[in-house]
Amino acid sequence: MNFYSSLMLLATVQLLCYVSVLEAYSNGSLLEACATMTPVHEAFEPSTDPCLYETRPSELMVVQGGSISIDLRNISSNSFKGYMTMAFDASKPDDAGPIGTFSMPTDGQLLSCPGGVNNTITHKDNNSIKRNVTAIWTAPADFVGSVIFKTTFVRGLSEYWVKVPSAGGNITVFSESTTSSSTTQPTTTTTSTPPCGAASSISRNWIWGVILLIPVMFQHA
Ligand SMILES: *[C@@H]1O[C@H](CO)[C@@H](O)[C@H](O)[C@H]1NC(C)=O
Ligand SMILES: *[C@@H]1O[C@H](CO)[C@@H](O)[C@H](O)[C@H]1NC(C)=O
Ligand SMILES: *[C@@H]1O[C@H](CO)[C@@H](O)[C@H](O)[C@H]1NC(C)=O
Ligand SMILES: *[C@@H]1O[C@H](CO)[C@@H](O)[C@H](O)[C@H]1NC(C)=O
Ligand SMILES: CC(=O)N[C@H]1CO[C@H](CO)[C@@H](O)[C@@H]1O
Ligand SMILES: CC(=O)N[C@H]1CO[C@H](CO)[C@@H](O)[C@@H]1O
């Protein structure tokens, strides 16, 4: 192979890389992470260390169709670069899909994963440091029961936690008709920190891997 054909090959490979990078940023590709909430970096497994971040709901009870805010925040001073949060019906497997709707997060974007609209929040840019992301979650109007928020936090290429349950336990969505009879306020002082990496099956999704590799690719370019 002569010099010029090598050069052409290199240029083609780079072009293909560039195209797949662009595709990785399209909303359609991010949607592929909906099923597993799992970023994949070839060489790295999800961390089993205690999670450095938490999902903190403002309330542990909400009336059907009502709203609460959630904070994704650092526990130490460490900051994260990527995240994905969904709310699940605690009585069903996660395969049933996320429920409720989110408002636009303070740092990130809305996704509509299969089965709903605006039912997922995730990061928008690949490289900024995030310490405290806030979003409003609205419970479905036709649902009563226990809800659990789960967040995948990405600190960097080699360190991420998948589907970390929210701090303080599950959220109870109660019926409008029981509002008048329930006069006791739920305690919101629980401070237990759930373990990370609670996902039962970690299936691989290369899309997030591509997304998260981009800063590295840029640095080495
Ligand atoms: C990050 O965590 C540290 C320690 O808990 C805290 O002092 C700091 O305010 C947090 N920063 C933000 C932006 O939440
Ligand atoms: C909280 O949700 C989990 C499902 O993620 C479930 O296993 C657990 O039983 C729920 N706890 C309560 C008290 O409903
Ligand atoms: C979904 O979010 C978009 C962007 O904020 C908003 O315009 C739209 O009304 C939302 N749809 C629903 C059903 O919440
Ligand atoms: C996170 O941001 C929200 C809204 O900006 C604020 O109310 C809350 O106090 C912040 N939490 C931390 C721990 O910084
Ligand atoms: C509907 C939706 O999620 N649109 C987003 C697609 O991606 C761009 C760029 O990341 C966002 O600005 C849109 O809001
Ligand atoms: C879409 C986007 O935010 N791309 C950025 C990813 O990170 C590199 C390196 O910091 C930036 O140059 C891109 O603009």
From TrEMBL:
Transmembrane segments: none
Keywords attached to this entry: Signal
Top-rank taxon: Eukaryota
Pfam families in the cross-refs: Reeler
InterPro entries for the chain: Ferric-chelate_Red/DefProt, Reeler_dom, Reeler_sf
Region (Disordered): 175-196
UniProt KW Ion transport keyword: no
Low complexity composition bias: residue spans: 177-195
Domain annotation Reelin: ranges: 19-186
CDD domains found in the cross-reference section: Reeler
Residue ranges of coiled coil: none
Signal sequence bounds: 1-24
GO CC entries: membrane
Protein name (record): Reelin domain-containing protein
Organism: Daphnia sinensis
